[in-house]
Amino acid sequence: MSSTFIYHPTESEAEKASNSYLMSLIAIMVGFPLPIINLLATLFFYIANRKSTYFVRWHCIHALLSQLSLFVINSIGFWWTISVLIREDEQVSNPYLAYIITVFVVNVVELGMTIAAAIKTRKGHHVFWWFYGPLTQLICKP
């Protein structure tokens, strides 16, 4: 989950980078049933810090990418659940239950990884998730 990073951020940089992960956690408390709230909170934090140092920008993009994929997964589950609740011809099926369980597991894992990333980043360590890290490297240039 973390990797060595030659650059040692200042206290201010570490705090801002850590806050990029905390944004999604705070947004969960505010708008839990609506998947877009987490994505928007992380996006606005990135926009506010897009001209910051490379370390801060990198972690803002890293958090944003994780929230983007989580948004897609959660949106499908949200609208499928609304469909099950509203439409008479739609019912709770095995594929629906399997998807909802998968969404739950993905959200719990992502929540744990986000908390760990916020803590490590706050200490000045560089966090590099296996899927989002290489993607962030492609997007964020020094």
Molecular structure report:
This protein is mostly helical and 142 residues long. The chain has helices spanning 11-31, 36-49, 54-86, 94-122, 132-139. It has a domain at 11-87 and 122-139. Helices cover 74% and strands 0% of the residues. The mean pLDDT is 83.
Question: What are the main properties of this structure?
Answer:
142 residues; mainly alpha; 5 helices
Mean model confidence by pLDDT: 83
Strand content: under 5%
Task: Report Rg.
Answer: 17 Å
- Total of DSSP H or I helical runs spanning 4+ residues: 5
The ordered string of helix (H) and strand (E) elements is HHHHH
Estimate percent helicity: over 70%
Topology at a glance:
Elements: H1 11-31, H2 36-49, H3 54-86, H4 94-122, H5 132-139
Helix pairs in contact: 1-2, 1-3, 1-4, 2-3, 3-4, 3-5
Care to give the gist of this entry?
With 142 residues, the protein is mainly α. The chain is 74% helix and 0% strand. It has a domain of 95 residues.
